[in-house]
Amino acid sequence: MHGGKEARIADPADRSAVVARAFAAMVLSNVCLAFGPVSVRLAAAYSDIGPVTSAFWRLGLAIPVLFVLTRVMRQPIPRMGRGMVLMLLTGGLFFAADLGSWHVGILQTRLANATLFGNITTFTFAIYGMIVARALPSRMQGIAMALAFGGVGLLLGRSYELSREYLVGDLFCIFAGLSYTGYLIAMGKARGILQPMPALFVSTLAGAVPMLFAALAMEGKLMPDAWWPVLALAIGSQVIGQGLLIYAIGHLPPLIIALGLLIQPIVSTALGWEFYGEKLAMFDWIGGAAICIALILVRRGERPAVAKPAQPV
Length: 313
Known about the structure:
Elements: H1 12-34, H2 36-47, H3 51-60, H4 62-72, H5 82-106, H6 111-118, H7 121-133, H8 139-162, H9 167-190, H10 196-218, H11 228-249, H12 254-260, H13 263-276, H14 282-300
C-alpha cells in the first residue's frame, strides 16, 4: 500500500492479469515449500538441532527479512484493530502448531508421507471454501477434485505398502495439516484487508514466540552448529514460499489454493527419489500426473466472479 492506502484491483482486465500472476505465484510457492522437509533433515544432520528448534529458526531468521521487505516493497504495517491483531495472532499460533508437529513428523516418516499428510489441508481447506461460497464446485472443478483425490490415493497406497513404522510420524503430519488449515483460514481473512508482507510478518512474529519456548522446553540446544540449513529453511520456505502463497491467497479461491498444495508431494516424492533412494513405482507417476491435470482443469473451471470485491495487491 502507498501512503497508508491499500492498492485495489477493480478493472476486469487488470483483475484477470493479477489472477494469472497469483496462480503462477501459487505454483512456485508450493515448489519452494516442497524443499522444506529436505532442509529439516539437513538441519538435523548438519546443524545438530532438533525439529522444533529448526522450526523456530525458520520463523526467527525470517522475521528481519520480512520486516525489510515491508519497507522495500512499500507495504508498511498499518494500524490494526483488535480483531485484526487477534486474527493474525491466531494465524501465527496455528502456524507454530503446524510447523512444530510437522518438523517432528518429517524425521519419523518418508518425505512423500510428510508432505502428503501435512497437506491434508487440500481437503479441509477446499471444504471450508465450499461452505463459505455456499455452492458446490462447477462440473470442471468436480472432475479436477476427483482426479486430485485419485492421485492422492495412488500416492498414499504406495506409502503404506512400504511399512507401518511411519505411523507416529504420519499422525504428527496429519495434525500439522489440520493446524495449517486454521492458519490459511486466518490468513485468508487477513488478506482481505492487509497486503501480503505485513500479514506474513506479523503472523511469523506471532508464531516465533511460542516456537522459541517450545524449542527450549523440548530440546534445550538452541544454537545450530551450521547455519546454512536453517537459513535455507527460513529464506526458501518462509520468506519465498509462504510469501508467494500469502500473495496468492488474496486473489485465488480456496479450492484452487487447496489443490495447489498437492504440488508439494509431487516435488517431495521426486526429491526423496533423488536424494534418499525412496523408490518410485508406476502408480507414483500416474498419481503425480493426475494431480497435475487436476490443477489445469481447476484453473480452467473457475467460475467467473460477477461482482467480486477488489483485493489488496
